[in-house]
Amino acid sequence: MRPVFVFKADGQRGRQWADVFGREAPDIDFRLWPEIGEPQQVRYLATWVAPADLGMQFPKLELLFSTGAGVDQFDVAALPPRVSLVRMVEPGIAHGMVEYVTHAVLDLHRDMPAYRRAQQQRQWQPLPVRTAAECSVGVLGLGSLGQAVLAQLVALGYDAAGWSRSRRALPGVRCHASADELDAFLARTQILVCLLPLTDATRGMLDAALFAKLPRGANLVHVGRGPQLVPGDLLRALDAGQLAEAVLDVTDPEPLPETDPLWRHPRVCITPHIASMTQPQTAARVVIDNLRRHARGEALVGLVDRARGY
Ligand code: GLV
User: For the chain, which residues make up each domain, given as ranges?
Assistant: First the structure.
């Protein structure tokens, strides 16, 4: 019997995944939710959120794939120990994130928010132009997305730095590691990009204390997770001039309620969690590759370390 793989997401994406599996992995029995047949046969599941009784419903489940880059939506502690959880590490997501962050950084570096406001007042008012080399960008989180973003920022000539929990070495990037080096990283960062995973350690991390360690007039591009930001602290930092602009693709909750003051702040730009999306063509191939690795007993790409939570 062919091993059963279940895909649980919207039907249109599902059909694109089904095409790739049909072409490239005919040895796997691809089933689209809710037509999954006998749940006892399911060995692999790709989904954004896990059904509550996952362990009971799928007694033979071995691999659980997140259809997105993040895994904070899963209750990792509640997953049966036999199930390995895998993040989506695929070139389509990285590409979208590189576009979004590069756009935001260029927009901020070239003072576009100020020019948009000036245009509303019909004011012809040139500001001093800084080169990319004079603009320091710092990326919090050096996973696959942070690395892809930094490679593009380096190519554009930015003064680029990164911070992560454990030390990384990236070409052209000043890498900082651990809590010890966070303050030095923040002190040199004019445009801060958050690409951290949501964990207990990063929840509420973008707060007044952190903003105070950035140079005055710094900018924030938040593409991590909503609960990492303390919105009241952001609004106060913007009003006090400690921060100049904020670009937020994630909020807490999502969608952001109509009455939330973030919507109305003139120095906040909000997009509805669209920075980057999993691309079915590339993602299905990455998952097939991981199924092959699993069958050969090799290490999986994007395997979540349960103790770390990402
Ligand atoms: C989106 O935020 C994702 O995790 O892919």
Answer: 4-90+278-296, 93-270
276, 279, 282, 286: which to mutate for ligand 1, most atoms within 8 A of CB? Answer: 276
Quick one: which of 48, 22, 55 has its CA closest to 33? Answer: 48
Backbone CA torsion sign across 101, 105, 107, 113: positive
Would you say 39 and 57 are in contact if contact means Cβ atoms under 8 Å apart? Answer: yes
CATH superfamily placement of domain 93-270: NAD(P)-binding Rossmann-like Domain (3.40.50.720)
- What are the structure tokens assigned to 2, written together? 């062919």
CA distance 300 to 17: 20
pLDDT digits (tens, 9 = 90+) for 248-280: 999 999 999 999 999 999 999 999 999 999 999
Q: Which of 278, 282, 304, 310 to mutate to test the pocket of ligand 1 (most atoms within 8 A of CB)?
A: 278
Rounded to whole angstroms, the Cα distance separating 100 from 223 reads: 9
Write out pLDDT tens, residues 9-40: 988 999 999 999 999 999 999 999 999 999 99
Element (H, E) at 257: none
The residue written with tokens 């009971």 in the block is 56
Distance of CA 35 to the CA centre of its chain: 30
User: What is the homologous superfamily of the domain 4-90+278-296 according to CATH?
Assistant: NAD(P)-binding Rossmann-like Domain (3.40.50.720)
117: which 2 tokens? 């406001």
Domains 4-90+278-296 and 93-270 in one fold: yes
**Which among 22, 23, 18 is positioned nearest to 33, based on CA atoms?**
18
Is there a contact between 138 and 162 (Cβ–Cβ < 8 Å)?
yes
